[in-house]
Amino acid sequence: MMLSFEASIVIIALNFVLTKAGPLDWARVEIPWARADRIPIDVNLPWLPFENETRCYGEIGCLNITREWYHLIHRPFNVFPLPRNVINTRFILYTNENPTDGQLLVAEDKASINGSNFKPDRPTKFIIHGFIDTPLSNWVSEMKQELLKHSDQIQVIVVDWGSGSLPLYTQAVANTRLVGLELSYLIKKLIDDHGLNPEDVHLIGHSLGSHLAAYAAERIPNIGRITGLDPAEPFFQGMPEFVRLDPSDAKFVDVIHTDARSLFLLEIPGYGMSQPCGHLDFYPNNGKEQPGCILSQESSALIPLTLIKDGIEEASRVLLACNHVRAIKLFTDSINGKCPYVAHRCPSYQHFTDGKCFKCNGGNCALMGYHSTMPYSYQNYHNHNASENDVVPSPDNYPPIAPVQGKYFLITGKEPLCQRHYRFIIEMARPVMAEKWVQGFLTAGIFTERGKSLRNLDLTPKGTQRFEHGKSYMIVVTNPNDIGDRINKVELNWSHEMNVLEPRNLCLFWCNDHLYVKSITVDMMQMPTREKRELEKSNKLCPKQEIADIKSLGRVLFYDSCKR
């Protein structure tokens, strides 16, 4: 069968756009009549799927392909995995007894498990890599070390499916289903033959590894937890739940989204899903552009050093997949880091940065990363067979420690990654001499009674901002340091900005460029606790005079002495 040159170009272009994995991915998409067991032809058209065919892989189980696994836009291919011996899935055990020399576990070989350091009463963490990745990647070793460091009772099993994660991307996607069978078979053996408690199983998957974890867990009742680290978007987003990671796959599913840029929003497409797919979905920095990942900020300066230090593989990650791998770095840092990744449940990232979702009461805060906790809505209510019409208890009745299922936002940094959140509420005054509005930049310094301080906090992080006198403004800013104590003084610095392109903004001899402020309130976000109290420390501060008159390039101090 021959394809015209024009048709070939269309196929290549379509698959390149949809997969974002390279122009060669079209070559493995098959058509029903081109199966190797019938006609020896390898002509591939992505929009013609298999239908109702099943293949079995010995003791690990069978896979079928139906129309439900196909979608013209979201998943324009429908192929089977490569043979088991080609993918060659392996499971490598690490414990504090053997932290560097892994022990190979073979599901059907009891001696390999009984002769290893595997202990069924230990929490068991599985690390699952993604596309074009192997267990030799630096991040796998770093995460494994941090997990073992966290507790001498933890055991880590690294899933090696490197021979199946190679290009073409479409084939790697299909291979995840077979590796899911392999992983499921091993876990069942550990449960049935060796006494492992499925609730002690925690599957940690990156990219394709997130969905692979779901395929394994959905076949085993009561798997404790799946952590999805920027689950892969191409061929998964918009598909039914059985095709991708979803909350029904484990008792607790938490997801970190870091590369969820969308082509439909006229953005450079990312590799990760924007669609929520867990009980708790975390979106640091809106789940899109991560600090330090813009080429002009990081790659041009760091690539040469990275090449020398970590090799070409790590350099390519910085250059091509910085946002995508940031989820790995955030999770790894959260395991033993002293700074908690506190996130807020909010309708949108804009609402969060505007300070509209800063309260933790009612289960509206959650910890992102290793120490994330199961939401109340699942822990005490959720049932896989529950009806959509069932009534969920009011969030007001949730214990403070238990977050509510939903989307959570936070701000992280380039280095250090973890940041403390502070909310400023600026109450503007409107004396008769004030202009209706002024435009410029604000910075602040905060001070405590014990001498702690944070300086140069940027209250206009998006650039010059317009302030209308008589209104109030809220802004969330971050700093890696926790000031801890009650704030007793705030310094506010104002710089008026003239824009020659906006004549109304010019302020020469006939206008007033001063900023007039009535009060400042600073809220410091604290880590959620079990205590039934307000979780934030709030301080309202006022100037010595009734109104602070701040001239351009000037500063005024606010004190904890407001009249109550």
TrEMBL record:
Q: State where the protein is found.
A: Secreted
Q: Which domain of life is it from?
A: Eukaryota
This protein's major location comes to: secreted
Extract one GO cellular component term from the record.
extracellular space
One example GO MF annotation: triacylglycerol lipase activity
- InterPro entries in the cross-refs: AB_hydrolase_fold, Lipase, Lipase_N, Lipase_panc, TAG_lipase
Sequence similarity: Belongs to the AB hydrolase superfamily. Lipase family.
Name it. Lipase domain-containing protein
